[in-house]
């Protein structure tokens, strides 16, 4: 299973004003066990601002965003240093990736970030993601890591997103004010009532409250990912969740990941543009579920940029599929008919062997398109 785990500042500090090493080592241990059990783990971690604040001796907090950005700039390296050491205990190499909303909105940057993260997983590295706070101003900020973690879950096609917080889940009322509040263990769909339950509850150390978590749940479940909110100090919480135990609040997906990916692929379809392929490629794509390689391409029609979606047309003129193209039209025109090993030689660079990867293809039933 591919799991994205989000750790909020409140979990990392465990009720104190400092990064709480014992809590962090406990979570690193659980994540390492999940990896050893064969799961792909991606960590989205807050705590940069707090780590910077701690390093500078807890200066008075200022209102300007730039002050917070400076604290994050001090703290991010410190945070990664700690993670590096903790995961070292379990012999798990880690990688830092700092994202902004702009990286996820732009399709080419999205593809690049996705490729890097998936490669990290493939080579056994645990990616640790945070917002690039030092440079992210309003227009390009995600702003809270709950939302960022839902976007990341979508980016890496995760089955499960776990948001660990200082609160055990979603309650029927605010548990700090109402002792009769009940934990809701299962949410079938994020509705207005669910938002109403979230109220304005939140802790003062992190950025997100319950509201941003519900927003994240809406994003994640629409993209086909299950999301769970649970308490970070619950013993072995990650191991128990991965084993299927009910802990915290589970939000069920309302769409499949495949449907959501198809919608995303089709969202940037360029009309009046296509790639014409030979009979061998038609066979490979439709019968064997292969990716489209340059060798099977005979002609390029129209203009598109890398990351846009174009039709694939068979020799009889039928569109057989649509796919997100890893190369711009002018690049495909240059490499068409060539062997994959020649891509780099012809273009001087390569975005990979596949012109259209099979995971990025939506097949048409006959006469569609
Ligand atoms: N990126 C911020 C940090 O590292 C946290 C944002 C959040 O917790 O939502 O401190």
What does this structure look like?
Helices cover 38% and strands 20% of the residues. By secondary structure, it is of the alpha/beta class. The chain folds into 2 domains: 256 residues, Carbamate kinase, CATH 3.40.1160; 96 residues, PUA domain (Archaeosine Trna-guanine Transglycosylase, Chain: A, domain 4), CATH 2.30.130. Strands 3-4-2-1-5-7-8-6 form an 8-stranded mixed β-sheet, with helices on both faces. A hairpin with a 5-residue loop joins strand 11 and strand 12. It is globular. About 1% of the residues have low confidence. Bound molecules: glutamic acid (GLU). Glutamic acid binds next to helix 3 and strand 4. The site of glutamic acid (GLU) has 16 residues, from helix 3 and strand 4.
CATH architecture name of the largest domain: 3-Layer(aba) Sandwich
Poorly predicted sequence stretches spanning 5 or more consecutive residues: 201-205
Strand content: 15-25%
Indicate the percent of residues in helices: 25-40%
Heteromolecules bound: glutamic acid
Task: Describe the largest sheet.
Answer: 8 strands, mixed
**What structural class do helix, strand and pairing data support?**
alpha/beta
Report the end-to-end length measured between terminal Cα atoms. 34 Å
Q: Tell me the Rg in angstroms.
A: 23 Å
The average pLDDT score comes to: 92
- At the fourth level of CATH, the homologous superfamily of the largest domain is Acetylglutamate kinase-like
Give the strand order of the largest sheet, numbering strands 1, 2, ... along the chain.
3-4-2-1-5-7-8-6
* Number of individual domains: 2
Number of helices: 14
Principal-axes shape call: globular
């Amino acid at each position: 299973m591919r799991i994205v785990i989000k750790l909020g500042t409140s979990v990392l500090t465990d009720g104190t004003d400092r990064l709480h090493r014992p809590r962090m080592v406990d979570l690193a241990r659980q994540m390492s066990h999940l990896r050893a059990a064969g799961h792909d783990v991606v960590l989205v971690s807050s705590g940069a601002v707090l780590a910077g604040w701690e390093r500078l001796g807890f200066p008075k907090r200022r209102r300007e965003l730039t002050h917070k950005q400076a604290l994050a700039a001090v703290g991010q390296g410190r945070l990664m240093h700690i993670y590096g050491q903790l995961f070292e205990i379990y012999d798990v190499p880690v990688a830092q990736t700092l994202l902004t909303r702009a990286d996820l909105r732009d399709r080419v940057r999205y593809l690049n970030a996705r490729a890097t993260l998936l490669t990290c997983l493939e080579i056994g590295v645990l990616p640790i993601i945070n917002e690039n706070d030092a440079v992210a101003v309003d227009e390009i900020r995600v702003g809270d890591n709950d939302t960022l973690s839902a976007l990341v879950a979508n980016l890496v096609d995760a089955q499960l997103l776990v948001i660990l917080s200082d609160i055990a889940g979603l309650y029927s009322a605010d548990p700090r004010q109402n002792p009769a509040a009940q934990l809701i263990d299962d949410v079938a769909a994020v509705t207005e009532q669910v938002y109403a339950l979230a109220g304005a509850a939140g802790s003062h150390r992190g950025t997100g409250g319950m509201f941003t978590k519900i927003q994240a749940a809406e994003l994640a479940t629409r993209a086909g990912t299950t999301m769970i909110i649970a308490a970070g100090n619950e013993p072995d919480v990650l191991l128990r969740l991965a084993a299927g135990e009910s802990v915290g609040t589970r939000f069920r997906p309302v769409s499949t990941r495949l449907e959501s990916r198809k919608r995303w692929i089709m969202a940037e379809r360029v009309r009046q543009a296509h790639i014409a392929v030979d009979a061998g490629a038609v066979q490979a794509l439709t019968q064997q579920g292969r990716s489209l390689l340059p060798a099977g391409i005979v002609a390029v029609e129209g203009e598109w940029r890398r990351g846009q979606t174009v039709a694939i047309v068979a020799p009889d003129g039928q569109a057989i599929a649509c796919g997100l193209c890893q190369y711009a039209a002018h690049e495909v025109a240059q490499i068409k008919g060539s062997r994959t090993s020649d891509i780099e030689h012809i273009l001087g660079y390569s975005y990979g062997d596949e012109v259209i990867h099979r995971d990025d293809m939506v097949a048409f039933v006959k006469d569609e398109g």
